[in-house]
From TrEMBL:
Originating organism: Veronia nyctiphanis
Keywords: Hydrolase, Protease, Serine protease
GO biological process per UniProt: proteolysis
Family under the similarity heading: Belongs to the peptidase S51 family.
Signal peptide: none
GO molecular function, one term: serine-type peptidase activity
Lineage, uppermost ranks: Bacteria, Pseudomonadati, Pseudomonadota, Gammaproteobacteria, Vibrionales
Keyword Chloroplast (UniProt): no
Name of this chain's protein: Peptidase S51
PANTHER family assigned: ALPHA-ASPARTYL DIPEPTIDASE, PROTEASE S51 ALPHA-ASPARTYL DIPEPTIDASE
Domain of life: Bacteria
Amino acid sequence: MNLIYLSELQHHTLQQAISRFTRSQNISIGQGAYISSQHEPEQLYFRYTRERYTQVGLDLAYYFDLEDAFDEMKIEKVFGYSFIHLSGGDTFRFLKAIKERALLPRLLKYVESGGVVIGVSAGAMIMTSSIDSAVLCGDHNTVELSDFSGLGLGDFLIAPHADKSETECRDALKIANEHGLPIYLCSDDDAIVISGHEHIIIGCPLLVQPSLVRV
């Protein structure tokens, strides 16, 4: 699997994550497609994200909107790019739109065929098996999403924008116990890279391990 989980688009963190990934795989990443978490009328966040990628030598070439003027031909174009960026935003709203468009299995197939997926904040949580951890960074299920299961990539959950406080760790432990999976609490300077079978940790994410044994 070729995956990058980011809490925020900090320049130095993104640069280090891309550099470590390309060194590990001995490959270069070509053009990418951006999947927006919600409709962006002015595409302001897309343009900001594209600028960040340009600064590290990558071309985020294509904007795709799940909510406005959805076109099946446009989504097919997304999967033709060498990497896909899953944006930040409202995690519950983003996952609901992905499921309504039946994109989870197609994203999984893309990863299995060697495609690179880079998720930031909400996008990073959706890459894991559940977005239950979204409550740790203040997201609320205002869209009445009933199924919180994500892509199931990696053997952990993730909580972005973490302050790693005692209260947050206690709340994270409850979620870790419910799922039987560890949770990485990631500040905005932290990132996790999965390159093949190698896990690369950038920064100092705090790993909260489940304390209960699931039988």
